[in-house]
Amino acid sequence: MVPDQRIHERPAASADWLRAARAARSLSVATLVWLGVESTLGLAAGFSAHSLALIGWGLASFVEAAASLIVVWRFTGARTLSASAETTARRAVAVSFWLLAPYLVLHVAYDLDAGQRAAPSVLGIMVATFSLISMPALGLAKRRLGARLTSAATSGEGTQNLICAAMAAGVLASLWLNTLGWWWVDPAVAVALAAVAVREGRRAWHGHICRH
User: Fold this and answer.
1) pLDDT > 90: what percent of the chain?
2) How far is 161 from 154, CA to CA, in rounded Å?
3) pLDDT, tens digit, 9 for 90 and up, residues 78-135
4) Which whole-number Å values give the CA distances from 207 to 90, 122, 129, in the listed order?
5) At what angle do helices 185-205 and 52-74 cross, to 10 degrees?
6) What is the pTM for the complete model shown?
7) DSSP letter string, the chain
8) Residues 166 and 154 sit within 8 Å (Cβ to Cβ)
9) Cβ 168 vs Cβ 57: under 8 Å
10) Confidence check: pLDDT of 64 > 70
11) pLDDT score recorded for residue 127
């Protein structure tokens, strides 16, 4: 991890840098399209199955979409070469990480008190499986672009995509383990993901950029 640097300290006007900026924006637009589908289907499946992991994952898709919108904003027009736009974008991405954690914890407490248990969901399994396959590639590509652009906002969005893949894996595991009576896995996944969101938000706020 390396600290954020001001954009004007980089060869921001170079053709390679500008190509990377356009690529980051294009990947974010493509991500927005999928997240619109993913969040709708994930929430529908989660409420139907009373699955905290699915509901949390569906809500996380909205948070990811916010991060994608921020990156699109960051690399549009005059903001592309703006150091202040990068600072604003990376802090906004950090806030987007923090939006998810309180909901997950409160929803876990409510559902445990109500005695709700997750049920298997064919729709949820299908959507989670697709995200488990596609999100790692998107996330790693954005983190590499974030390193090239010295953009913690881009790197943070990529990290959110990787978290999405981890959430999808957790959703699939919790739905399967629930059939074995291990109902506690579902809320445990939700709480663990809340902790990850808080940690990654703190890193994004301070401008850490992953080089791998």
Assistant:
1) 30
2) 11
3) 999 898 999 999 999 999 888 877 877 776 776 666 565 556 667 778 888 888 999 9
4) 7, 39, 31
5) 20
6) 0.77
7) -B----GGGS-TTSHHHHHHHHHHHHHHHHHHHHHHHHHHHHHHHHHHHT-HHHHHHHHHHHHHHHHHHHHHHHTSGGGGG-HHHHHHHHHHHHHHHHHHHHHHHHHHHHHHHHT------HHHHHHHHHHHHHHHHHHHHHHHHHHHHT-HHHHHHHHHHHHHHHHHHHHHHHHHHHTTT-TTHHHHHHHHHHHHHHHHHHHHHTT-B---
8) no
9) yes
10) yes
11) 82
Mean pLDDT of the 152-181 span: 83
> Which amino acid makes up residue 172?
L
Length of the chain: 212
Tokens 């990376």 sit on residue = 90
Two tokens at 125? 């399994």
Q: Tokens 């697709």 sit at which residue? A: 130
